[in-house]
Amino acid sequence: SRNIRLAVIPGDGIGTEVVAEGLKVLEAVGGKVETTTYDLGAKRYHETGETLPDTVLDELRGYDAILLGAIGDPSVPPGVLERDLLLRLRFDLDHYVNLRPVKLFPGVETPLGGVRPEDIDMVVVREGTEGLYAGAGGVLRRGTPHEIATQESVNTAHGVERVVRYAFDKALSRPRRKLTLVHKTNVLTYAGDLWARTVDRVSLEYPDVETDYCHIDAASMFFVNQPQRFDVIVTDNLFGDIITDIGAAIAGGIGLAASGNINPERTAPSMFEPVHGSAPDIAGQGKADPTATILSVAMLLDHLGLAEEAARVEQAVADDLVERQTGWSGRTTQEIGDDITARVAG
Amino acid sequence: SRNIRLAVIPGDGIGTEVVAEGLKVLEAVGGKVETTTYDLGAKRYHETGETLPDTVLDELRGYDAILLGAIGDPSVPPGVLERDLLLRLRFDLDHYVNLRPVKLFPGVETPLGGVRPEDIDMVVVREGTEGLYAGAGGVLRRGTPHEIATQESVNTAHGVERVVRYAFDKALSRPRRKLTLVHKTNVLTYAGDLWARTVDRVSLEYPDVETDYCHIDAASMFFVNQPQRFDVIVTDNLFGDIITDIGAAIAGGIGLAASGNINPERTAPSMFEPVHGSAPDIAGQGKADPTATILSVAMLLDHLGLAEEAARVEQAVADDLVERQTGWSGRTTQEIGDDITARVAG
Ligand SMILES: CC(C)[C@H](C(=O)O)[C@@H](O)C(=O)O
Ligand SMILES: CC(C)[C@H](C(=O)O)[C@@H](O)C(=O)O
User: Fold this and answer.
1) DSSP B131
2) How far is the CA of B70 from the centre of ligand 2 (A)?
3) Is this structure's pTM higher than 0.90?
4) Which of A336, B69, B154, B190 has the most neighbouring CB atoms within 10 Å?
5) Do A171 and B58 contact (CB within 8 A), yes or no?
6) Does ligand 1 come within 6 angstroms of the Cβ of B217?
7) Tally of CB atoms within 10 A around A217
8) Best residue in A87, A150, A162 to probe B by mutation, most B CBs within 10 Å?
9) Which atom of ligand 1 is nearest to the CA of B215?
10) Taking Cα atoms as reference points, which of A11, A6, A1 lies closest to residue A26?
């Protein structure tokens, strides 16, 4: 049905501003959208000490999807909101696929010279529920000359195989049918061995998908000087974090990069968010580009089976992006949202 | 004295070819160079099962410096030569500074549009003896659906502080005097806290150095769209591995990226090597660019106190690079080496 029950977490900084535009576009698509807003983030943390109360997490499970703006504020110690709110959502709602398209839209300026839109068209399937993000590790003798701090990457057959399977399916659905594993098997030998063996084994079930392997360092370089190399990429949580920011850079900047934290089995709602952060330096000034959030709304629609609506939003963004190059810039967050909304509605 | 006792490890693939050119340039600089070549690498491993015998490691300690080509071959399981040879050298010779300049020479083509040489001029100080490269980790129930593979990043106050101090000194010696810590403190909270606290504390002793912090994902993006941001970067082993490959990409490619594995206290010889790998696909064809190795030789000379000689080699490379843009390409490995050698000698 076209009735969407949506939980909205605007979050911190520019999060509120960009989410407002995302919602505008979502309404314009048509159908019924019921939204409930949750005031999670720095403000609530300062006022109540709460990051993500269990009762709120339980409530969130009842929605069709979650739209999130951005989490993080310099007034909160590093890691508190990230770990206890954003990553807790991803982990507890089992968002094991962090889906991040890297696509250069026509008309968008890239810092890479001589690159055409067809050269940058990939999807990164980033694992979202384990690896170095597990929070495993510890510290001994903190603050002394004998301090030791560890940080552990946890990788399970269960966790790796399911995201690898998702990536193979994704590759099969695209014209090039190419899947590249990005890891660092020559140094992270235990984790790398699990990832490489899993890709090898699952690949036997996908004879039509060409598989490739690339070390994270080389892949990061190829994003810059040979982005054509990639179609679908599967990688772990941290490597995915890094290369999708390089991806954002080459595809026109963080203002355009969308993402979906997907629970493919739908045992809990998936969560859609721009790749960018809360950008406290420009918050409240109408300077943020809401496009990444709007493209995340398109991913949300697609996830809910509304492919036609998703395509309509993506087309509206594409058209807007083409017009931007003709010097039509300097619009506020709201103006960009209004213009894209008008295209979707009209 | 100008008498250099040098251990040479050409290694695998193009390693042999590029090292030959590096040595040619080194001889041309003048002074006495005594070289001893060690046949470590894939061939020796296959013939004898040896990677780095203890006796060889002990012998290597007696030299003034080591010049290394490249290590790694697809015929050897991933990690064997990397861990037991290359990383063992870095770890056992206490190369705690992995120094990697990222500099766009005039005349060199960068994939970034509209960027000038002065926009890309930084030095990455990568930690070289701990972090995720420690080899810590393990696997349980390998090959079963219940497999778990871990990989641990080990960070010590001792290890972090010494490399941070080196980086502050480096920053102080450069005109901009800016040091950026690159990490992921919001997720790798234990390790990140140690790194951030150490930089904060040591910064008090360097009031003339401006310090900055950047998450690895954002830093990777800024390498592509705001490289001007960076002067000296200090970071851990894995993040350093990744950003220096992005650095190589933006500064004209892996064929130009030099590095030094430095033991600042000189308790063991430092080791100089191009950032690139053994490139088995083009090995033996005279296609490899020896420039990265020649620039590593310049770093070697500088490390041995031969600053004038180092500058001469770097200038010869700079001049060669300017000429390349006038369409003078298609030279073989040996021809490039000969041309740079002629400039150094003449
Ligand atoms: C804010 C941070 C925890 C997060 C991450 O590292 O995953 C962000 O960088 C992202 O990519 O969504
Ligand atoms: C070959 C590999 C072990 C090595 C590393 O990861 O350090 C290489 O990528 C480098 O950067 O020198």
Assistant:
1) B
2) 10
3) yes
4) B69
5) no
6) yes
7) 24
8) A150
9) 9
10) A6
Please write down the HEC assignment for all residues of chain A. CCCEEEEEEEECCCHHHHHHHHHHHHHHCCCCEEEEECCCCHHHHHHHCCCCCHHHHHHHCCCCEEEEEECCCCCCCCCHHHHHHHHHHHHHCCCCEEEEEEECCCCCCCCECCCCHHHCEEEEEEECCCEEEEEEEEEECCCCCCCEEEEEEEEEHHHHHHHHHHHHHHHHCCCCCEEEEEECCCCCHHHHHHHHHHHHHHHCCCCCCEEEEEEHHHHHHHHHHCHHHCCEEEECHHHHHHHHHHHHHHCCCHHHCEEEEECCCCCCCEEEEECCCCCHHHCCCCCCCCHHHHHHHHHHHHHCCCHHHHHHHHHHHHHHHHHHCCCCCCCCHHHHHHHHHHHHHC
Are B273 and B131 spatial neighbours (Cβ–Cβ below 8 Å)? Answer: no
* pLDDT tens-digit profile, chain A (346 residues): 579 999 999 999 999 999 999 999 999 998 899 999 999 999 999 999 999 999 999 999 999 999 999 999 999 998 999 999 999 999 999 999 999 999 999 999 999 998 999 999 999 999 999 999 999 999 999 999 999 999 999 999 999 999 999 999 999 999 999 999 999 999 999 999 999 999 999 999 999 999 999 999 999 999 999 999 999 999 999 999 999 999 999 999 999 999 999 999 999 999 999 999 999 999 999 999 999 999 999 999 999 999 999 999 999 999 999 998 776 668 999 999 999 999 999 8
Token pair in block for residue A138: 């510890």
Other C-beta atoms closer than 10 Å to the C-beta of A38 total 17
Residue nearest to atom 6 of ligand 1 (CA): A241
Residues of A with CB below 8 A from B164's CB? none
Domains, chain B, in order of start with CATH, read 1-97+258-346 (3.40.718.10)
CA distance B40 to chain A (A): 18
